[in-house]
């Protein structure tokens, strides 16, 4: 019982102690809470007062800045108003000044108009008096003065034009000579080498007999197959092949060479060899044409035109090899075109093809220039090239800038000393004819044909022929040579009149 009572008492004491602790704890916590709340209220009041103070300070600051900005704006507005008032005052002053000047200007205009009227009256009076004195009206005098001024202006203009023409001719002649001389110097070719006879060398006279054959059957078969006349005479170690067609002569020469080397010479063999050589020569002609085009840098030609170019190798004109002549003309045309700012490739192409009409078998009745133009058109060459080919002998109108280049190139190549072979008798006869023709005129003391007959120098007596007569004489001689003589290119006639005055001091 005591234990239970003790336990109960302990528990009751513990419960009382716990209750007392709780009560004390709550009283402590309540006191702290009130203290914390009080402190918080004090702090909040303090912060509130600070914020209110800061807000008041910010408001005062903003108010001060606003008032400052308003004052500045007002000041600017007042300044602008002042400037506007000043401008208005100035403008009013200028307007009044302008009105005053306008009034003065109107007064000046009125005075000027009065003076003009007075001037017109006085001028009319003076003109009337001048007309009475001169005996003609003002319009007639003006017309006469204008005609006189026109005549003077026309004379001065004609003199100026003549000076310009003379200067242009002098410069053009110098420039043309420079271009032509440079062109000739930059192209060098062989002289005339072709003729109508080819010499075929043989080792002994026994071969002559084998070529002739029994009763001449071999030589007859060879002549019939080649179209070449074979001359077997007393010339030692040589047989002559005569024909105007160089291709036929070349076929005959090659055929004879193969027959002599082979040793079998009879009509059947001759026909076989001639046929074979003809085919080989055609291939060589085509190869020559191709090689020529490659050397000159010309591309895109029709194969038929290439073949015609190759045939030029076996054709001559006045002893000048046609292929060599065409190559030379092509190079000359290219150089001239470069000097003149034209396309040198087109000029070179036209120069190479300008004489293809000479080696064609078509339309023999046509001149070779027109036939060449027809062939070029047939094989789709450019119009300017076709025109240059057809017009290089002036047998058709020149419509291309390259046509005169080809004409000049052809003349330069053909006129070069040694380029072409002429019969010496006809050459000398032509020179003497020129000299005799010039010597038939009165006052001519001597006449000399120089520059291969391309220039005629005529010396006249100063006592018999005046300077004006010398000028007329040169024109008459040129016209007579042109009408009565045949010559290549052109002939320059120079009349020389010299006056010498000699005195001796003793």
Account of the protein in words:
- The chain is mainly alpha-helical.
- Among the domains are: 50 residues; 219 residues, Hypothetical protein af1432, CATH 1.10.3210; 74 residues, GMP Synthetase, Chain A, domain 3.
- It is 70% helix and 7% strand.
- The strands form three sheets. It has a three-stranded antiparallel sheet, with helices on one face. The protein has a three-stranded mixed sheet with strand order 6-7-8, covered by helices on one side.
- The protein is flat and about 190 Å long.
- The relative contact order is 0.04.
- About 1% of the residues have low confidence.
Write the layout of secondary structure elements.
Elements: H1 2-134, H2 138-186, E1 197-201, H3 205-212, H4 217-226, E2 229-231, E3 238-242, H5 246-262, H6 267-296, H7 303-311, E4 316-317, E5 320-321, H8 322-340, H9 344-353, H10 368-378, H11 383-390, H12 402-415, H13 424-439, E6 444-450, E7 455-460, H14 467-484, E8 492-497
Parallel strand pairs: 7-8
Antiparallel strand pairs: 1-3, 2-3, 4-5, 6-7
Helix pairs in contact: 2-8, 4-6, 5-6, 6-7, 8-9, 8-12, 9-11, 9-12, 10-11, 11-12
């Amino acid at each position: 019982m005591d234990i239970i009572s003790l336990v109960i008492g302990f528990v009751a004491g513990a419960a009382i102690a716990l209750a007392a602790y709780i009560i004390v704890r709550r009283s402590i916590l309540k006191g702290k809470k009130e203290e914390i709340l009080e402190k918080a209220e004090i702090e909040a009041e303090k912060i509130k007062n600070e914020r209110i103070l800061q807000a008041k300070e910010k408001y005062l600051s903003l108010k001060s800045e606003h008032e400052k900005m308003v004052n500045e704006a007002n000041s600017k507005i007042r300044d602008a108003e002042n400037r506007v008032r000043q401008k208005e005052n100035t403008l009013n002053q200028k307007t009044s000044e302008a009105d005053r000047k306008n009034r003065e200007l109107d007064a000046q205009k009125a005075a000027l108009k009065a003076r003009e009227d007075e001037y017109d009256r006085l001028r009319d009076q003076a003109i009337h008096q001048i007309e009475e004195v001169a005996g003609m009206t003002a319009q007639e005098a003006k017309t006469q003065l204008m005609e006189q001024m026109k005549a003077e202006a026309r004379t001065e203009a004609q003199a100026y034009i003549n000076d310009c023409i003379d200067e242009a001719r002098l410069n053009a002649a110098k420039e043309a000579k420079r271009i032509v001389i440079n062109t000739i110097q930059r192209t060098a070719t062989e002289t005339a080498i072709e003729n109508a006879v080819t010499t075929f060398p043989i080792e002994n006279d026994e071969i002559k007999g084998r070529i002739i054959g029994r009763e001449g059957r071999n030589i007859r078969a060879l002549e019939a197959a080649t179209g070449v006349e074979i001359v077997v005479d007393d010339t030692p170690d040589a047989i002559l092949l005569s024909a105007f067609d160089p291709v036929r002569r070349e076929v005959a020469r090659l055929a004879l060479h193969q027959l002599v080397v082979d040793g079998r010479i009879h009509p059947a063999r001759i026909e076989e060899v001639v046929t074979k050589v003809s085919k080989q020569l055609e291939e060589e002609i085509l190869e020559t044409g191709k090689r020529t085009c490659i050397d000159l840098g010309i591309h895109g030609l029709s194969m038929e035109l290439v073949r015609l170019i190759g045939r030029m190798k076996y054709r001559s004109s006045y002893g000048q090899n046609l292929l060599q002549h065409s190559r030379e003309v092509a190079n000359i045309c290219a150089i001239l075109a470069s000097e003149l700012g034209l396309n040198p490739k087109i000029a070179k192409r036209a120069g190479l093809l300008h004489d293809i009409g000479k080696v064609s078998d078509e339309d023999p009745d046509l001149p070779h220039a027109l036939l060449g133009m027809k062939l070029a058109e047939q094989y789709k060459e450019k119009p300017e090239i076709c025109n240059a080919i057809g017009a290089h002998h002036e047998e058709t109108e020149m419509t291309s800038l390259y046509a005169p280049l080809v004409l000049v190139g052809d003349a330069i190549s053909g006129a070069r000393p040694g380029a072409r072979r002429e019969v010496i008798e006809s050459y000398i006869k032509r020179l003497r004819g020129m000299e005799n023709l010039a010597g038939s005129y009165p006052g001519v003391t001597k006449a000399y044909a120089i520059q291969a007959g391309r220039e005629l120098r005529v010396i006249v007596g100063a006592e018999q022929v005046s300077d004006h007569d010398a000028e007329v004489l040169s024109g008459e001689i040129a016209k007579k040579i042109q009408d009565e003589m045949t010559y290549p290119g052109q002939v320059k006639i120079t009349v020389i009149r010299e006056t010498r005055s000699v005195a001796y001091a003793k």
